[in-house]
Amino acid sequence: MGINTNDLVREDGGVQDRRIYWDEDIYQMELEKIFARSWLFLTHDSLIPNPGDFTTTYMGQDRVVVSRGQDGKVSAFINSCSHRGNMVCRADSGNAKNFVCSYHGWTFGGDGGLTNIPLEDEIYSKPVDRKIFSLRQARVESHRGFLFGNFDENAPSLKDYLGDMAWYFDTFMDAPGGSELLGPPMKMRIKSNWKFFVENFIGDFYHAGWTHAAAVKVIGGPLTAVLGNQAVPEGFQFAAHNGHGFNAAPGNDEVFPHIHQGETARMYEEWLRSRKPAITERLGEARARIYNAIWDGSMFPNTSFLRGIDTWKVWQPRGPHEVEVWTWTLVEKDMPDELKEGIRHTNEKTFGPAGILEGDDGENMEGNTGVNEGFVTRQQVLNTEMGLGSETTNDDYPSLVSEPPDNEAAHRNFLRMWRAMMAAKDWDEVMASRSKGA
Amino acid sequence: MSTIVSNSAMVPMETHHEVQSFLYCEARALDDEVFQDWLAMLTEDIHYWMPFRENRYRKDKRPEPTPKKSASIYNDYYQDLLDRVARFETGMAWIEDPPARARRIVSNVEAQYSDTEGELNVYSNLILYRNRRQDEEAWFVARRRDRLRSVDGQWRLARRHIVLDHHVILDENISVFM
To answer: Would you state the CATH architecture of domain A167-437?
Structure first.
C-alpha cells in the first residue's frame, strides 16, 4: 500500500502520524496484523458458568461464538456457517447444545464442529468433509477466569503475552476469592478510532480533572484533588511488556481514592480495609499498596479497565472512524451482593451509556477522530511526549515505572507495540523488535 | 380474552387529560433544559430505570431484567438525578456546550388506576430527536411505564421504567432524560 508503518509512529512512541487514526488501509492492516494475532478479551467464566452457556462477541471485526461445552471446556469459533456464510447464532447470550444456521439448517456443536447437514445422505453425492467445514476456532486461554481468544497459532501463550501485566492484574484477580465481571456488557457506538479510547484509559490521568471537571465536582470525594487542572498528587505510571500499561494513584490508610458515593463508598472502603492484610500476606507489600489505588489501564490491544470505578471495557473496532464500547462491571467475587450491586450502580452512573463521565470522553474522542477528514489536518502529527525519559525500573514493581503519574509513558509503550506488530511478519519478529527497544 | 385492556382500570377523561398535560409539560421542561422545574415534577422516592436489553432467543426462559441483578443504562434514585442535573449546572460540562437541540414527542398515553390509592399507572411512547453540533443526529425510541402520584392535588412522577428500543446505543452518549 506504499506506506512504511514504521514511519507512522516515531521509534520512541512520542509522535504519531494522524493517518493511523483515519486511513482505511491502515485500519485493514490493523485487523490483520494486530487483531488477528493478539489475545482479545472474550468474556468471564462467571457469565457463561454452565455447560451449553454461550455468548456472542467480536474478535476485531470477526464475529465469534464463545460457548461452554458439555465437558465444561470453553470454545470460541467464527459465527459464520461454512455452507453459505450466514451467522449460526443471532442471540447475545443463552444456552444451547447446537448452533443451527437459519438458512438451510446446517448444525454445529458447542465447539463449532459440523455435526449435521439436513438431507446429506439424499442430496450430496459424497459426505461433506467435517474437518474442512467445521467452524474455525480461536485459541482460548484464561487468566483467573478472564477468558481471551487468539486466532494466531504461533502467538505466545496468554501468560507470556500478559507478562508483567498478569502480576499487576493479580492485585485484584488473585485477591482471596478472585474477581469477576457483572454483565451483560452494555454497548454503545462512538464515532472514534478505537486507539484513542485505549490510550485515554492506558494512562491519561492528565485529562481526568479537566475533561470530567463537572462530574468530578458533583461526585465529590477524594477525586476532587484533581479538579480543574491539578496534577495527580501521588502515584505511578506503568508500562508493561507487549504494550499493556496503567496508572495507579494509591491512597493510604485514611484516604481511599475511588468514585463510589454514599453507602457504596462506605462499604467499599470497609471492604478494602478489611482485605488489605490478606492481600499483603498473599501478594506482598508492593501490590497491597496499589490494592486500594485508583487505576486506569489498558491491555493491548483493546481492553481497558478502571479500578476504584470498577469498569471493564472492550473497544470493538468498527472501521477506522467508529468503535463500539462494551462495558462490564468489575467486582471481587466474594464481596457481599449489596456491595456488588452498589459498584454496578456507580459504574453505570459514571461509565455506562448514560454515564456522566463516559459522555465527556466520547465527545473528545469523536473530535480527535473526525477532524482528520481534512487532508491538510491529517498531514500534521500528534504528541505523546509527556514524561519522555522518565521511564525507569523499580525494585518493587516490574516493567517500566514512571513518575510523576501524569505521564504518557504508557501511551508511548502502547504505540511502540502497535508499531512493532504492524511491521512484524510473525510473533518471533514482534518479540525480537520489542526486546531491542522496550 | 385480553388481559391488556380492562375498561374498569381506565381513568375518566378529565384525569386522562391531566395526565397527558403532565407528560407534555414534562417533555417541554426537558426540551428547554429547565431542569429545576423538571425535578419539581418528581417525588423524592422516585426510581428512574432504563434496563439494557439483550437479544435473546424466544425460547430463552431466563427472567426479564430487574433493577438488581442486571445491567441498566439508568438505575437512578432522586439523589442520582440531582447529581446529573447538578453536573449540567456546574458550567463545566464541556460536552453540553454549545447545547444540543432536543425534541420529545410523547404519544400513546394510557392512564389506569393502580393498586395504590392516589396513584396511576401511565403508559406512553416517546420519540426523542437530538441534533448536535453541525449535523449530528440521534433518535431514541422508547416506551415508558410510569407511576404518577397525586401530591397536594398535583401529579408527580414517582416511578419511571423506560423500555428503550435499542440494543447497541447508536449515539456517543445518552446525556438526556427520557
So the answer is: Alpha-Beta Complex (3.90)
